[in-house]
Every structure is written in C-alpha cells, then in structure tokens.
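Task card 7
Instruction: Convert sequence to structure tokens.
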Amino acid sequence: MADDNRPLKYLRYAIGEIALVVIGILIALQINNWNENRKRQNEEVALLTDIRLNLETMLVNFIRDTTENSIDIQVYSEIEYYLENDLPYSNELDTAIGSLSFWNSPSINASAYNTLQSKGLDLIKNEMLKNQIVKMYEYDAKRLTEDYEEGEKKLNSLIVDPFFAKNMRRLPQKSLVIAIPNDFENLKKSDEFANILSMVIRQRKRGIKIYNEVMVEMKLLILEIKDEVDLRNE
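Output:
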C-alpha cells in the first residue's frame, strides 16, 4: 500500500512545489510592479516640482516685464503731454524717446515641460492637472510669445524703427538707451508721430493685459502643483 501511495505523494509534492514557484513569481511580479509604480511616482513628483520651479521663475520675470512696460507707458504718455501742450523739448524726454523701440519680451522657461513631453504626458496621473499644464504652455504662454510679442516686433520693424531712423538720433557716447529728436518743434506737428505714440502705448497696454491674465492662471497652477506634490509625498 505504501508503494501504491508513493506516486500520489510525489504528485502532491510536485503540485506543492509548482504552487510555491507560482506564488514566488506572483510576489516577485507584485514587488516589481510596486517598484515600477514607485519609480514612476518619484519621476512624476520630480517633474512636477521642476515645472513648478520653472513657473515660479517665469512669474518673477513676468512681474518685472509688466512693471517695466508700465513705466514705458508712463514715459510715452509724458511725450504725449509735451506734444499736446506745445512744450519745449526737455532732456527728461531723452530716455523716453530712446526707449520707443524697446520693450520687455516674455521669456518662457519650458525645460521641465519639454522633458515631460519626451517622457509622455501620461506620467501625470491627475488628468485635470495635466490638462492645465498643457494649457499653460500650449495656449497661455503662446498668447504672450505668438500674439503680444509678435505684435510688438511687427509694430517696431514696420513702423517705429523706420520713423525713428529718420527723425531721432541716439547718443551712444552718453548712454545706449537715450535718444533725442532731430527737430522736436517739427515733430510736435507730426500727426504720424502722434499716431505712432498712441499705437505703441496701446500695444504695450494690450501686452500688460495679456501678461496679467496669464499670471492669474500661472499662480493658480503653481498652487495646484504644490498641492499635488504634497499629496504624492504623504
């Protein structure tokens, strides 16, 4: 009878061995999946942190841009005041005249976002947050670079610079940012100059409006990314 039961014992033993191997494989796969998920989560958190830092740098730069562009509007309005009130030229206008063809351009820091694109947007688990990040870089930031900035470039190259070259003179021996009109009295009578001033002021105000709208979205996104990172680190 012992001989008769031996095959059954071997079968039970073999089944037990197979079960142990299967269980071991399943445990190994589970550990591997856990490690992979943990690795992807760490990668997600690192990228989200980098995106937040990029956005915070951009926000600081945008605040500087809007501040300095607002100052430009004030000094251009000062030129308008001189024209409208038929005032004689003053050296205080040198900087205003000299800055007519300058403006603060938006600088977009997309290094972390580009890395996210290369790794795959699906790395961000929070679908809503992912969509907001994409919107920031693919729509909001492009409003500044492709709408406002391109508008400034076209206005400057087609209208401001040609007029400036004919009617203004830079004084590089004194400063790289100042200039004086060749004939201010004649310039005061120029409807073209008055129109150019109004166009430059309008474009700069339009840019500040876009900047402010983008910065509102940017501040919200920075907070939402911070909350997501904090949640992932719990």
